[in-house]
Specification:
With 418 residues, the protein is α/β, with parallel strands linked by helices. The chain folds into two domains: 196 residues, Rossmann fold (3-Layer(aba) Sandwich); 177 residues, Nucleotidyltransferase, domain 5, CATH 3.30.420.280. The chain is 32% helix and 23% strand. It is built from 14 helices and 17 strands. The strands form three sheets. The chain has an eight-stranded mixed sheet with strand order 3-4-5-2-6-7-1-8, sandwiched between helices. Helix 12 packs across helix 14. The longest helix has 16 residues. The relative contact order is 0.11.
Length: 418
Amino acid sequence: MRVISTGYEARPQFAPFHARTQRFAVIVAHRRAGKTVSCANDLIDGALRCTKPNPRFAYLAPYFKQAKDVAWQYVRDYTRPIPGVGYNEAELRVDLPNGGRVRLYGADNPDSLRGIYLDGVVLDEYADMDPRVWSEVLRPALADRGGWAVFIGTPKGHNGFYDIWKDAQDDPEWFALLLKASETGIVAEAELTAARKAMSEDQYAQEFECSFEAAIQGSYYGALMRHAEDEGRICAVPYDTAIRVDTWWDLGIGDATSIIFAQRVGREIHIIDYYEASGEGLAHYAKVLDSKPYLYGTHCLPHDVQAKELGTGKTREETLKTLGLTPTVIPMHRVEDGIEAARNMIPMCWFDRVKCERLVEALKQYRKEFDESRKVFKLKPLHDWTSHPADAFRYGAMHKPSTGFRQDIRPYPQLGII
């Protein structure tokens, strides 16, 4: 065996991680703890030691540009001492002399990951990723070669990262590590004191004390959704066959299309179902609606449903009409106005916990974009996986039914509603 030193010396806090025997791992660590450096070196070490032919290892960040900014320099620096190493800057790829490869990806382009196999993968800032990237794309890529996975990041509320951390506590196949700034000693106490003064209590708790309970910074609806949870309005919400179902759409072209199914019951709005898919034509969504047992009312779609498609010369509104759906077009409006309308509507909403799980999580996480250079939130939403369900909800909030549905309030023993 040839010994190669990359120059990496693990911090004591990460020694248990490097010595782990479990196939899966999750690290919840404070800012500047060194989790990305540790995991980049874990990938390099794995690629060098792997005895399978053509080992493949990957680092995944929420965005490809973020992967380049955060991890590419580390990967290059720590692989430079390896004889015969090669680099592909365009693909952010390192080729090792044993045939191994470490490559960086962005979760914003999951299609680039489909069809590949992996022996190991690190998912950095997993709280900012669409959880389906793991379940639908990366987990299958590990299957045939028994590859391993590591999830790292700081908390951002109760989301997919929180679920993985919670489930890992009692699973012997998982290694779990929690690193709080108050306990590690990595960041100087004087610096922590200064940070505490400059940050809100929630910000400090989230970024340095790894609190999953702190509010998501910049969230538009986080507090309102927590209030809905506390009031028991995220529960089992049955379909009332006596009341028509309204649908609220966000139309995707190259990405996801989201559909929310809602019933108006007196002053309340019951969100009974949610559907999302990508890469499908309008006929697919018409079939989905037809397959459900609902009696429909109004189908609310954004103004771009009236845009003509180059291939057919028809608008998507015309196409939907041929499929038996008559859209109600929501006029163009300022996003800020739609968000305010959604904020006013959430206190009236009841969400089905099971069928609308993805919608509920998206509304919790939907937030403002952060300007890293100026260290302030921008006056526009961050475009990520939460945008599509949140936009569909916004279009529903902007719809003002003229006649509405049946407005009498009927008893719901299951919900405790009178």
